[in-house]
Amino acid sequence: AFPDLSGPSEIKGVWKDSITLPCAYVPVEDLVQQTLTWTVVRDVGSGAIIRRDDSGDHVLLSEYRDRVSIPKDAPGNVSLLILSLEISDRGTYTCQVTWRDSNNSLIAKEITTTLEVVKVAATKPIIRAAEPGLTLPAGASTSLSCEAGGSPPISYRWFRSGPAGTAELLSSGAELAWPSLRASDSGTYFCEAHNR
After folding, report:
1. Residue 160 belongs to what domain range?
2. Residue 103 sits in the same domain as residue 183
3. Where does the Ig-like domain lie (predicted)?
4. Cα–Cα nearest to 109, from 13, 15, 14, 23
5. What is the pLDDT along the chain (196 residues), one digit of tens a residue?
């Protein structure tokens, strides 16, 4: 019985996020993994990204240095983790494994996955409060934090409702904090999430 590699034929990643390109097999007795190579074909060039052999893991394409890894202690899991996806990472990735059998013959298998890199608009943010309930005594400290999904980087701005539908910009950043509340801090606050 020879191992079969399994993984998806296509996968979507979010720009600036990380992604795992799955590639796995069920280890078979008497077959020893010799080499594992991930290669890519892209608009901006092709080549071997990373190679694992007896001497360790070697990253061969400089634009993937410090951005790619393969699980260390998971026999049969030879997936490729890519950090901080760039638009230029999109392309066709091939996972190739060779095994040596008890007769010293080599067996090779490969599978191919197409990676698309997409940009995702910021979602409508949600506000999380440090305390349950937003009626607090004067002098207490509290904070509100704003969270949105989408392609990073996401920036946040906090506003406070003013008279006649106006809004006063308070700060930029995900958190709005009050070290010591005053009665005049009562009001309606809202946040805005923005990405590219």
Report:
1. 126-195
2. no
3. 3-112, 125-196
4. 23
5. 678 999 999 999 988 889 999 999 999 989 999 999 999 999 988 999 999 999 999 999 999 999 999 999 899 999 999 999 999 999 999 999 999 999 999 999 999 999 999 998 999 999 999 877 789 999 999 999 999 998 888 999 999 998 888 999 999 999 999 999 999 999 999 999 999 8
**Structurally, how many domains does the chain consist of?**
2
Same domain, 19 and 96: yes
Q: Please identify which residue in the block is written with the tokens 């077959």.
A: 31
**pTM, full prediction:** 0.71
In a shared domain, residues 36 and 95:
yes
